[in-house]
Amino acid sequence: MRQRQFLDVVDESVAHQRFDEACSHLKPRVEAVPLGEGLSRVLATDVIAGVDVTAFDRSNMDGYAVRAEDTFGAAELEPVSLAVADFSLAAGQAPPEGFEVSAGLAVPVATGGVVPRGADAVLMVEHTEPDEDGIRVVRPAVPGGNISFAGSDIGRGETVMRAGTVLSSRETGVIAAVGVDHVQVVARPRVAVLSTGDEIVEPGRPLAVGQVYDSNQRMLLDAVSELGCEPVPCGIVPDDEELLERTIEGLLLGDDAADLVLLSGGTSKGEGDLNATVVERLAERLPGSAGIVVHGVALKPGKPVLLAVIAGTPIVVLPGFPTSAIFTFHEFVAPLLRRLSGVPASERGNVDATVPMRITSAPGRTEYSLVDLVAGPDGLAAYPLGAGSGSVTAFGRADGFVRIPASIEYVEEGTTVAVRLLHPELRPADLAAIGSHCIGFDHLLGLLADQGYRVKMVPVGSTGGLTAAGRGEADVAGIHLMDEATGQYNAPFLPDGVRLLRGYRRRQGIVFRETDQSLMEADDETLAALLRAGTLRMVNRNAGSGTRVLIDQLLDGARPDGYLHQAKTHHAVAAAVEQGRADWGVTLDTVAAAAGLAFRFLQDEQYDFAVPKERWDRPAVVALRSLLDDPAVVGQLAALGFTR
């Protein structure tokens, strides 16, 4: 299949300028909604009080409405006597018409009740004693005491809420207090979200080889909702040019037309980009179309983004890979939606951090590298996730990202960089685990999370974990390194200032498909020879991992086909073999069983934890140590295939 090149790859600043100009005709719309539907909406106009709050002189407690001067001089030893009116005023009850509190008279009044004319204070019940002729006052009242006077909170004609305010329960309560039952709010832009491509499958349905679940639509619908807009799910359209054109045209025209249309994915089976072809054709047919203003941005991830305005409506075609899609959404779509919805930009700050390893970049393109942040002795360290644009979990896991200008080819280890946070505030982990991946460790981290600890896992392999522990950046590092000279695990590799926390044993072995009879029937010596011969394609593990050491020992210097195919996790190894992309690899027996693969045992290995000495007594580390000694947890690990 011959691919058409991007129409015009431009710098991100040029892309912003073109798209902003093409969308300059779009303005926020205003609508009136009942106050009961106003929560989280953005006020479009000021709210003006039409009444005083409070609307009358109100008693702030149960007591007696009196003239304060009648109580002056009262004391426990010299009480002042007052007569009591023959009626009382409950909340919501008006005084008798024409009534006025006269000298020497007290009127019983409840909290929230109307203070009658003539009274200028409410005397607390606790400051009185009953008397045959009324009450005895043992403590004087002060003028204005225990009364909220009419208009003292909000005055008629006063602005009680400004346009642009996002309504929470506090604001809706204030608006209700001035008697307003409808509010003018910014209308929520309707954003249609459509996924395209034959390979896209709705979650919940079975997957065939080569298909992927539609995570983009769910992610984008929720991102749209977070920006105060109305998401409109439009499902999945296969690679059918005519059907796609009819679908998009229906979203652009008519009474239910969307204010913005979002697409992602969808490369045609023939030449070129199907979405771009359809958008281009619609621009030629429909009036009021600026057409495609950007198709290709010098940005990583997100190079193939398409920005257009058709029939006055913005259409954005995001890349199909999840990380690319969400980055380009926040880069180009979110600013427009915030302007149209009135929702203010979240206050996400920047923090400085040191890069503990080199980050390579594609020259000529601005690159955004997702990072995990962990606290070290000299400040924050920014670990690059190393996940490509196809990663589903990377954006959700990351703490922030580093912007690498187009002129820079790499960021050297030890460089201080500015990290743009993805959350309004940095959320430090109670336990930073940096090192080798293991599902047993995942289970332990889950138990810690159940206890309320915030945990973070950064998979960089055993060697990378030891380095992080030695620098004091990790609270704990999962490791499984064998000293080839002694056969001893982990202890020989501990750097100064790092202690060993004993973990558990796990079974590693060669995995392959059960249909491969040559591997099923071979004895150990023949099996090793087959693997070294290179006639079978392997999947390797990343350098620095304990499994890689075991593989290199098994191959004894051989470099069979697939040696440079380096998976970062045990599950990735199993998936490569299960799907036929490799014939064999080395992983855990539990992972092999879950994938339905044959397993040939190589050896038990010890998976331990390296802990910096100064972090040994941190609460989360103490909790981890307790879990490893808990018989119930030991049993859970054994059920997963890991023995203490």
Question: How does the SSE layout of this entry go?
Answer:
Blueprint: H1 12-22, E1 30-34, E2 47-48, E3 58-59, E4 63-66, E5 80-84, E6 105-109, E7 121-124, E8 128-131, E9 134-137, E10 147-148, E11 159-161, H2 169-177, E12 182-186, E13 190-196, E14 200-201, E15 212-213, H3 215-226, E16 230-237, H4 241-252, E17 260-264, H5 274-285, E18 291-295, E19 299-300, E20 306-310, E21 313-318, H6 322-341, E22 350-354, E23 359-360, E24 366-376, E25 379-384, H7 394-397, E26 400-404, E27 410-411, E28 416-421, E29 431-435, H8 439-450, E30 455-459, H9 461-470, E31 477-479, E32 498-512, H10 517-521, H11 524-533, E33 540-541, H12 546-555, E34 566-567, H13 570-578, E35 585-588, H14 589-595, E36 598-612, H15 619-629, H16 631-640
Parallel strand pairs: 5-6, 13-16, 13-17, 14-15, 17-21, 19-24, 29-30, 33-34
Antiparallel strand pairs: 1-12, 2-11, 3-10, 4-6, 4-7, 5-9, 8-9, 18-20, 20-21, 22-28, 23-27, 24-25, 24-26, 26-28, 31-36, 32-35, 32-36
Helix pairs in contact: 3-6, 4-5, 8-15
